[in-house]
Amino acid sequence: MKNFLIIIILLISSFGFSISNRKQNHYNQQQFESIIINSLHKYFTYEFEESISINHKIENNNDEIEVDPNDHVNVELWNKLNEEDIKKMPVINDYSNEYVAKKWLKWYLPIAQRYSQVGAHVHWNYMTNITEENQKAMTAQNLIRSPFSRLVLPIAKKFNEYMKYSENDDLKRTFGRLASSITSNNDDDVKRTSKLDSQLEDIYSTTKVCELKDKKKCYPLAPYLERLMQIEKDYDRLLWAWKGWHDECGNKIRPIYLPYIDLLNKHAKENGYQDLA
């Protein structure tokens, strides 16, 4: 009985690792951005009289356009607002000056938040409707954001050289996180990474496991197989789900996953790390 339970636990753990591993890179980046943005919001609530938001007004034939973070994401408009705001980056004359650092963060925050929300929006569109058009939209958004990432990363690293010694824990923590970001210096690599990522998502989302005695009854990873591995107690049923899904996915994923990891490791090395890990 003890060995049986151990096998069950190993099967579930292995299955869960495979599922989480495919999501790790994308969602780690989203969580990373979310942590920084949330901490900046809290920080500036106390440091500045004006609240920070992604609301922004632009004049267009005497009309004002409001961007509401709780409203529908307007990809074209938000990218346009970011394009204009990026040009307004404050002058940095002293990387050791905390006031200059705060002023730069205040400029950075609304731009980063818009890009983060637009990125999540186009990724969600692809995940819920896997089409070539949505894949191209996701790649296009990655390319639009890349110049901003390349601009702010070296600046954040310069600030971090001084802020890591600051007595202000918020500044120390924020610049430490920003300085540890990773970005690609090559648009072709950005395109290829985005394409490989979408191919992996496609395989994971469309692969199905069929019943042994009824090949017409087939189930996708989500929600059926994920839920089954959480609640099923029967060993044979668990083995069928785990082995069936891995057999169906394994050969398809390998030629995509390996070059995908190579690209991510290349990005990491370009940013001064030994590898992605």
Automatic annotation (TrEMBL):
Any one GO CC term of this protein is: plasma membrane
Top-level taxon in the UniProt lineage: Eukaryota
Q: Which residues form the signal peptide?
A: 1-20
In this record, what's one Pfam family? Peptidase_M2
Bridged cysteine pairs (disulfide): C210-C218
UniProt-listed InterPro entries: Peptidase_M2
Q: Which molecular-function annotations from GO does this UniProt entry contain?
A: metallopeptidase activity; peptidyl-dipeptidase activity
Gene Ontology biological-process annotations? proteolysis
Q: Which UniProt keywords apply?
A: Disulfide bond, Glycoprotein, Signal
Q: Which residues are glycosylated?
A: N129, N168
Q: Which SUPFAM superfamilies match?
A: Metalloproteases ('zincins'), catalytic domain
What family does this chain come from, according to its entry?
Belongs to the peptidase M2 family.
What is this protein called in UniProt? Uncharacterized protein
Native species of this protein? Rotaria sordida
